[in-house]
Design goal:
By secondary structure, the protein is of the alpha+beta class. Helices cover 53% and strands 11% of the residues. The protein has one domain (37-203): Glutaredoxin (3-Layer(aba) Sandwich). The longest helix is centred in the N-terminal third of the chain and has 18 residues, at 3-20.
Length: 209
């Protein structure tokens, strides 16, 4: 790229990108002024080891912040009729094992879980209306499934319709697979973009106390 073009193009791109985000920054300021919390939506699946890592780590990183962590369980995700789906599920285990090791966690499973086998967990989690209680249940359940530990008592109430609603919301947010986080207008692959997500919360005014 010629130097003159670079000098003109890059600053203008930065300005345009910053301008695109102004509604989110303004909305965050309004929320803080009204005493409202920040909000992070995390779409995840119980059969997804990367989701397990993301939920456990994100719950830890938003602790102490005025942020509402909304965990949204899904079952159906990914590309329909994807011929590489089984390869991706095995790769996800290796990816999650690497990420977990860095966080001091040990992945206990070597084989994927069937999404339908854990779909009752998704429906049970979706039925918990209090976001903090849902986060507590989901974090404990995912730890037990993937990292070992005591499994929590599973609520008897199920809400499969809410799981389907979450899947539709995930698509409307522009996401197609898990774990995906949506924070005030921006999407993040939650398992490998946690630092960027937390930095965004800092910039929007919801830093740790």
């Amino acid at each position: 790229m010629p130097e003159l073009l670079r000098r003109r193009l890059i600053p203008s791109m930065i300005i345009r990108l910053a301008a695109i985000d102004w509604p989110s920054r303004f909305g965050a300021k309004v929320r803080r002024t009204a005493g409202r919390e920040g909000r992070v939506e995390l779409f995840f699946a119980f059969d997804d080891p990367c989701s397990a890592y993301a939920v456990v780590e994100l719950a830890d990183r938003v602790a102490g912040r005025q942020v509402d962590l909304v965990l949204l369980p899904v079952v159906r995700r990914g590309i329909a009729d994807d011929p590489a789906v089984e390869d991706k599920r095995h790769y996800a285990i290796e990816d999650a094992r690497r990420l977990a090791r860095r966080a001091g966690l040990e992945l206990m499973r070597d084989d994927p879980l069937d999404p339908h086998d854990v779909s009752p967990l998704a429906a049970a989690a979706a039925a918990i209306t209090d976001h903090a209680e849902r986060a507590t249940f989901c974090t404990a359940a995912l730890r037990a499934l993937w990292f070992g530990g005591v499994a929590p008592a599973v609520p008897e109430v199920r809400d499969a319709a809410e799981v389907i609603h979450n899947e539709g919301l995930m698509a409307r947010r522009g996401a197609y697979d898990t774990p995906m986080a949506y924070a005030h207008g921006q999407l993040y692959f939650a398992h490998d973009r946690l630092p960027q997500l937390v930095h965004r919360l800092d910039r929007l005014g919801w830093a740790a106390a």
